[in-house]
């Protein structure tokens, strides 16, 4: 449960203050570099936003920072 709570906080933090914000106007990607199990990883949050809510489509961690960081 503690891991899940930290994960939710990391996603919320990435949406609020992303290291980078990419994508089109209808589907966007918020991403941030985070430390996970002692390694720097890239947390990517794919989401859609309308006037009053954000819908998260998918979330994933990757070690391929160079591939995705612009």
Describe the 3D structure.
The structure is a single chain. This protein is an alpha+beta fold. The chain is built from two helices and four strands; from the N terminus they run H-E-E-E-E-H. The protein has helices at 2-16, 65-68, and strands spanning 20-23, 28-36, 39-49, 54-62. Strands 1-2-3-4 form a four-stranded antiparallel β-sheet, with helices on one face. It is globular.
Concise structural overview:
This protein has 70 residues and is of the alpha+beta class. It has helices spanning 2-16, 65-68, and strands at residues 20-23, 28-36, 39-49, 54-62.
Count helical runs. 2
Query: What is the beta-strand fraction?
Result: over 45%
* Helix amount: 25-40%
State the low-pLDDT regions, or none. none
- Give the averaged pLDDT, no decimals: 91
Largest sheet: 4 strands, antiparallel
- Rg over alpha carbons: 12 Å
Structural class: alpha+beta
Calculate the terminal CA-CA distance, rounded to whole Å. Answer: 33 Å
Shape: globular
Write the topology of this structure.
Elements: H1 2-16, E1 20-23, E2 28-36, E3 39-49, E4 54-62, H2 65-68
Antiparallel strand pairs: 1-2, 2-3, 3-4
Note the main attributes of this structure.
70 residues; alpha+beta; four-stranded antiparallel beta sheet; 4 strands; 47% strand; globular
């Amino acid at each position: 449960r503690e891991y899940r709570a930290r994960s939710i906080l990391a996603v919320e933090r990435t949406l609020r203050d992303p290291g980078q914000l990419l994508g089109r106007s209808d589907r966007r990607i918020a991403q941030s570099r985070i430390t996970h199990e002692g390694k720097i990883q890239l947390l990517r949050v794919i989401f859609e936003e309308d006037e009053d809510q954000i819908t998260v489509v998918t979330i994933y961690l990757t070690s391929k920072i160079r591939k995705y960081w612009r």
